[in-house]
Write a structure and sequence with these properties.
There is one protein chain. Strand 3, helix 1 and strand 4 form a beta-alpha-beta unit. Helix 6 (220-228) packs across helix 7 (240-252), helix 7 packs parallel to helix 8 (268-275) and helix 11 crosses helix 12 (347-354). This protein has helices spanning 54-69, 89-102, 114-127, 157-171, 185-198, 220-228, 240-252, 268-275, 277-280, 301-313, 322-341, 347-354, and strands spanning 2-3, 28-29, 37-44, 77-84, 107-109, 131-132, 150-151, 177-182, 206-212, 233-237, 258-261, 284-287, 344-345, 383-389, 394-402. The protein is of the alpha/beta class. The chain is built from twelve helices and 15 strands. Mean pLDDT is 92; it is low at 1-24. The strands form four sheets. A five-stranded parallel β-sheet has the order 4-3-5-6-7, with helices on both faces. A four-stranded mixed β-sheet has the order 1-15-14-12, with helices on one face.
Length: 406
């Protein structure tokens, strides 16, 4: 396993199992929990410019329906309450306050987006409501000292950006780099990690760095600007809609740069298919989950389990949309933590369990990638493999790149 140093991770071991909890103590409940249910709150952009991510919210809801059909968690059904915030931060504030103060949820789970999580970050920590496994890789979600009620899940953007930079240095040392990035904290995180990975002595390789707004109708002008700079390498750090536009415009210009694509937009169905498979060929991304379009996983037990779930609970969804894989894996992590709480369903204990995962394997993580957390480590996944699109599916190459145990 190739290691990259950025943070210190705890070692240990744990099996991923949903075994019944044997309670030897009195039941303890916080708001949102009874003998029969656990309320979880969530917001998602089911509408608006980032509605492609709506798949995730729908798949999470389907996951909890499956869990409930199997008897719930320690006999309690999950009441998953999800609202559409349209990726509009003021709307997120309104919806999260409703979830906490009116719906009285036990925890906020998988709230999607960097700016949308940011506007409720302090509020949820002041209220001591878990803001767990947020759907954003901004590095600020791993700050237990200042925000002990917030935890990320996916590999953070800073590390992912650094990994792409390291690959460029190893394979395209004399290249000229253009960066297209989303003008918010997520984009700034990606760019800062990318520049850190290049190192000060190599940052002159970046000849163009152009931002866009999520409300921009297209990114065509930004791509034209990057091409005009003379760049022969492009890092596309965008949401799905803009990523598809960028890839398609590069093809329309008959431009052949080396392309790196942020993992958050690596969906074959939502991004590469609309851009065109031939146009998308040879794009590189970082992967930590099994891709449903990759036939090598067809006989894996967890893939078969996921496929059966898709057919039963999301029959109209596109299995090539990576959001469905992501939702299943992150929900499995939350299921593990809730199960470990047993009858001590306090918010404090939920955070304790979330901060106690050691070498945890959840369905659909790539082989060699596991979840590790501790009271001082709120970055659950810090390992990836690089992957290139071959015109039909993502094809993994190279070793696992990791910060864990560094």
């Amino acid at each position: 396993m190739t290691k990259m140093r950025r943070r210190v991770f705890a070692a240990g071991s744990a099996a991923f199992a949903f075994s019944p909890y044997i309670a030897g103590a009195q039941k303890k409940y916080d708001p949102g929990v009874t003998d029969k249910e656990i309320k979880l709150g969530h917001t998602n952009p089911y509408s608006g410019p980032l509605s492609a991510y709506g798949t995730i919210g729908k798949a999470i809801a389907a996951y909890w329906t499956m869990v409930n059909d199997k008897g719930g968690i320690n006999g309690r059904k999950i009441n998953f309450i999800t609202y559409d915030d349209g990726f509009v931060p003021p709307k997120t504030v309104e919806m999260v306050r409703k979830l906490v103060e009116d719906d009285k949820v036990f925890a906020i789970f998988q709230l999607l987006g960097t700016p949308t999580n940011t506007v409720v970050h302090k509020y949820l920590n002041q209220k001591k409501v878990p803001q767990l496994f947020v759907a954003t890789g901004a590095s600020k979600w791993g700050d237990p000292k200042n925000f002990p009620w917030t935890m990320g899940w996916q590999p953070d953007y800073h590390t992912e950006g650094a990994i792409y930079a390291k690959h460029i240095l190893a394979n395209h040392k004399n290249g000229k780099i253009g960066i297209l990035w989303q003008n918010d904290d997520s984009g700034k995180d990606y760019v800062s990690g990318f520049l850190a990975g290049l190192g000060k002595e190599n940052q002159k390789m970046v000849v163009s760095s152009v931002s866009y707004e999520v409300t921009d109708p297209t990114v065509d002008s930004q791509i034209i600007q990057i091409k005009s700079s003379g760049a022969d390498i492009v890092f596309i750090e965008t949401a799905p809609k803009a990523a598809s536009q960028a890839i398609r415009k590069i093809g329309d210009l008959n431009w052949k740069p080396v392309r790196y694509l942020a993992n958050v937009s690596a969906s074959v169905a939502a991004v590469l298919k609309p851009a065109g498979f031939e146009t998308s060929k040879d794009i590189i991304t970082a992967a930590y989950l099994k891709d449903a379009t990759d036939k090598q996983w067809a006989n894996d037990a967890d893939y078969k389990e996921w496929d059966a779930w898709m057919k039963k609970y999301l029959p109209d969804a596109n299995p090539a949309d990576s959001g469905n894989v992501y939702a299943y894996a992150v929900s499995s992590t939350m299921r593990h933590c809730l199960t470990a709480c047993g009858d001590n369903l306090t918010r404090e204990n939920l955070m304790k369990q979330a901060a106690s995962m050691k070498n945890l394997e959840v369905p659909l993580l790539l082989p060699g990638i596991r979840i590790n957390t501790s009271p001082t480590d709120f970055y659950p996944i810090q390992s990836v493999r690089l992957s290139a699109f071959n015109g039909e599916t993502w094809e993994l190459f190279g070793d696992v790149l990791s910060n864990e145990g560094a």
